[in-house]
Design brief:
single chain, Jelly Rolls, 4 domains, six-stranded antiparallel beta sheet, 20 helices, 27 strands
Length: about 750
Amino acid sequence: MSGMVNLLARQKDLAAGIGTLDHPAKYLNQDYYVLNKNCLQAGTLFVDNTFPGEPSSLGFNELGPESPKTQGVVWKRPGEICANPQFTSGGMSSTDACQGALPDCWLLAAIASMTTDKNVLLHVVPDGQSFQANYAGVFHFKLWQFGQWVDVVIDDQLPTVKGQLLFEHSPGQNIFWSALLEKAYAKVNGCYECLGGGSLTEAFEDFTGGISEDYSLNDAPQNLFQIICKAFNAGSLLGSFIDFSSPDDNEEKTPQNLIKRHGYSILAAEEINYKNGKEQLLRIRNPWGQVEWNGAWSDNAPEWNDVSPDVQSRLDYKAEDGEFWMSFSDYMKNYTRLEICNLSPDTQASGAVHQWTTAQFEGIWRIGSTAGGCRDYPDTFCMNPQFYFKLLEEDDETNGPVSGCSFVVGLMQKNARRNLILDQDFNTIGFAIFQVPDEYKGLKEINLGPDVLLNQDPIANSSTFVDDREECDRFTLPPGDYVIIPSTQEPNKNGNFILRFFFEKQAVASRMEQPINAEIYEPKITASLIGSHSGQLGVSEDSPISAFKLLQLLNKQIEQRNDIKCSGFRIDICRNMISLLDASWVVISVTVSFYYYDIYGWHSSTLVFATDCQLQSTPIKSRSLRSVCAFSLSIYYIFFTISYELQITLIDEAKLAWYDPRIQVTSDVLHAIVLNFTEESLTLNADRFVGCLFRLELLFKIFTTVDKDKSGTVEMSLGQSLNGTYCKNTGHLKVSCVTRQCKSNDDVGTRRLVF
């Protein structure tokens, strides 16, 4: 349950404003200012035990402890590497970051692009850090990680070989801000080796919290140069790649001195007067800090002779620093992919021309509850999480052949790089967008069912399902109501994801989730009802019963039943029964539910959480969002949410009107039910079903008893939450459907009936 606990903690932090750019969460609970102060007072240099200068921080395979590539590595502080280390020198520049032995050109290219936006740069690299004033060997950086901003603390021990930095470095190896940033990025991703190979947009997003677009230059829109200029006006970060045709081409040079499958930063776009016309130019940087384009408009190309001196000076075209200009037409011929990271409103500079409307949600795919797979699996597709959005305002200008409301959707799976250490592959992810039918417009506390989602084609889809960290796509749709369903390609794949929207104009978005609700009928227990069943179980009307006695009674009765699949009741289930209900009422309710099977001939009480789950009964034909399901004690919604195949038709619901609980839960609660009550095969036998039912009712009653003002929120002490009970007189919660006396010396496992 640690994943769910962490998710709840994250939600609480975000509600309190923690995890935002202005108030980042403390990564691994490390406080930079406290650590720096303590080290200064003690006169020591900080040592980061959470990411130590040891082989495990380097890698696990090619950079693992026994790898030849890590032999001779010594971790040194900057003062041990050079005589006068500097955090920065005259500000941070794109030329400060040069690639080392690690194949992370994508990261270095993103760092170079970030230096062109001082607003972004100061967010990521907090000011006031140096090797002189208040130096204690501790530094920190702010990174966006899967939906929240975190402040990452590191020490300044860096891996070296023969006194030289092994990985990222400045040209003179005396400026260290970018090498320390690379270390912080390695820390949040698990180790340095986890940074090998990636896309520019991944690093762009982690530096800005933005969302990316990816263009193939083979079929790019005709107005791509205008799109690039608009992106720069909005403060976006841009980069580009040259794909390779075979693995042998990786990082091979072209005749024009460009490197295949290598990340380049795009730093500027200019349209200048040239001869009798205009020329569109792009300024591009190789993160190696060297090896530049040698074609038209390169540093010493003759084209510059026909440009005015003031333009030559402004464009600063002659520096040998890995940066170069090239015409847009040559760019289109030589590069294959363009990546644009659109900045979120909180990281955009105040003077940005364009501001996005954004929305962000965290979600979970879990086997047995919400891992339904793509639409190719109609039996389970509707199990996936659903999100509603409403497009309110059309674009000011047409960005393509279709007018409407433009927006970008990004679906990101969490902790993808860190999972490389565990040898876990990416899930293959994507999404589908459906138009909401008129009768459901404006309804957010619902889940669309198969009658809606399987009877219409999606109005839009992700461009592909990808086994990568993120799938991003831009769409233009008419104003209206829509639902988006993110999924893995195949069902029954666990994963955590972030779903983000960047809308060009005004729009709203929300999670589609049925609210938690329970309408629990309080039965009227009569002596005649009790007497009609208690005798056959060997329990008198006024005798006390313990959880252990109840366990014996239930399992004894189960042994006589061949028509019910049951693993045998457990003591924890019986304790929940005792805590919730008076003893005879517990026995009677279970007896009646079993008797109910006999009446209607339900010879299998196994509920299966799988794609082929079936129960021997007549399923409900209409599976709309208004459908309900019921089983045994008329518990509604819960099994519809778990798996919509588990919809049972009650032949005569009225016969159970004396006990009619209706329970509706969210997907978060559903995950807990699947984890706590199902068998390994994702089945729910009779004993587990009864245990689930009583546990849910007990928790509902505890909450509603404490929530006296119906606020939907309760406060409990640690002792109360651990005890799970509270009572005015005894300090324990008395939760019972039947009025009875509560004695202060009552044992939690024994209740005496009082009528």
